[in-house]
Write a structure and sequence with these properties.
It is found in: Cell membrane. The chain contains 12 helices and no strands. It is elongated and about 70 Å long. It is an all-alpha fold and about 300 residues long.
Length: about 300
């Protein structure tokens, strides 16, 4: 639409110039005719830049940063700038990964960590979304729910782990609940903001057209809250990984954290780095998946991201 408006304005400017040129001398008319194409070309270039934003999206751009980080790691290890005692070289990490996979049941630890993160993230996402709907669509719900959620925001969830241990013990229940609570907050906050950001004129139009509440929720409210929900999901994925790293240090009998705890006791730096790399890969792939879903689900929305 902005392209049409700009070209329309360009047409008005050119026609005005031509009208003025009709009453001017022949030299003035020639000057106006010469400058009009230049002005039109400048305007077209401005339209293209505005439509493209800061630049065309590079394919596979998400992998550029991790690739550069890996290149710095390899280069620093080869040049001797990064000592093996500080950070294990990448090739030694790959070797240790094979050792853990073949002789120490690394696959079982990966599965256990993914299960904890997945269950906690699913529980937190569902809870946060439902609470956001109740709070965002009802004044009574907002009065009851929003206040406690804001209080919880000021209390770090990781600081509640000792209390959760006293309530739920040190088993899987405590770990999943901690991850769920960390994931719930960003889902609630961003979904609630998305609901509150929906233009009130849509509700007035629905009342005027006598649209049923269920239809209004499905076709207006939920699509309007979707951008906020997906943004919250990206934060929730990161929070789930943070919670997983911490809770797996508490009496875990399996998982990446359990593997790293044992490696710390025996001074096996390479095993610790393997665990850190796995955590990083988890988080990166999960965030990339959410961004892909966001790009597909919000394809109707044109932003500077493209």
């Amino acid at each position: 639409m902005s392209d049409v408006v700009l070209h329309h304005q360009a047409g008005v400017a050119i026609s005005t110039t031509d009208a003025g040129a009709a009453t001017a001398t022949g030299a003035d008319a020639a000057t106006a005719a010469a400058t009009a194409p230049a002005e039109d070309a400048t305007l077209d270039l401005r339209v293209v830049r505005r439509r493209l934003g800061p630049g065309r999206r590079i394919r596979f751009a998400l992998w550029i940063g991790p690739t550069l980080l890996l290149a710095v790691w390899v280069t620093g290890s080869l040049a001797g700038f990064i000592a093996p005692q500080v950070l294990t070289a990448p090739w030694d990490v790959v070797k240790e990964f094979g050792e853990q996979w073949n002789h120490h049941d690394l696959l079982s630890n990966i599965t256990a960590s993914l299960g904890r993160a997945g269950y906690g993230l699913a529980l937190g996402t569902a809870t946060g979304f439902v609470l956001a709907l109740v709070s965002g669509l009802s004044r009574l719900g907002e009065a009851v729910i929003d206040g406690p959620i804001q209080v919880k925001r000021s209390i770090p969830t990781l600081a509640l782990i000792p209390l959760f241990v006293a309530w739920f013990g040190i088993g899987e229940e405590m770990k999943i609940i901690t991850i769920a609570l960390i994931s719930m907050i960003p889902i609630y906050i961003n979904t609630h903001n998305g609901l509150r950001g929906i233009d009130g004129r849509y509700a007035e139009l629905a009342e005027t057209l006598d649209i049923k509440r269920g239809t209004f929720l499905r076709h207006v409210v939920l699509p309007g809250a979707l951008p906020g929900f997906l943004l919250g999901l990206r934060f929730a994925v990161t929070g789930a990984m943070l919670g997983l790293v911490v809770v797996e240090q508490y009496n875990s009998l399996s998982g990446i954290g359990h593997m790293m705890t044992l490696a710390q006791e025996y001074g096996q730096t390479s095993v610790i780095v393997v665990g850190l790399v796995l955590y990083g890969i988890y988080g990166f792939l999960a965030d990339s998946a959410v961004r892909l879903v966001e790009r597909r689900a919000l394809s109707w929305r044109q932003t500077l991201e493209g």
